[in-house]
Amino acid sequence: MQGHRSTLLAVCLALGACAGELREPETTVPMPTAVAAAAPTSCEPAPAAAPSRHERRRRERGPSDGNFVFSHFSAGVFSTIIIQPATYFIATRVGETGHGLGPAVGALVLGAFLPPILNYTVQWAVGRAVAPGRDRFWPGFLVNQVSHLGIFIGAVVGGADFRNIGHATAIVLGEAFLNSGLATMTAELTRRPRPTPATATTEVIVPVLEFKF
Fold this sequence. Notes:
This protein is mainly α. The chain has helices at residues 2-22, 53-61, 66-96, 101-130, 137-157, 165-189. The N and C termini lie far apart (118 Å). Mean pLDDT is 77; it is low at 18-40. This is Lipoprotein. Residues 37-64 are annotated as: Disordered. It comes from Nannocystis pusilla.
């Protein structure tokens, strides 16, 4: 019995060794690792483009003023209708006095430069009364002067008779609306920047009560 037990033990050991050799080695599969992180997404809006120089100047000038435009233009139209015939009459009278080129040159100078000075001064004064300090004098005046010179020179070269009511009326009405409109548009587009309003401050006074016992 002892001999069979030793034989059985040897057989079991041999079978265990064979089973160990036949068993396949375990392989370890490495877990995949992230090689690159996803690009972070931002929900913030893209910064707005910086406003242009023209846009910044337009914002600084502030919104248009309809009351100023209407008053400025109306004053120019009515002043031209009243002042223009009077200046043309004075220029015609100066040209008819004396002899030589002196009176004629004087009449041309009066007719070319006096009406814009008077007309736009009235426009500027009315606009200043409606909106003090809003417009500059020189831009509107220069546009009015150039426009008047173009019409006046064209009328003189074309042979217009300022003593003729029909010719004078056509010239005066044309200048009243054209020159005044251009001057008002220029005054509105070249207006001064609006003043920055002062920041309102609130002062709170807290009373302190003192009790004595």
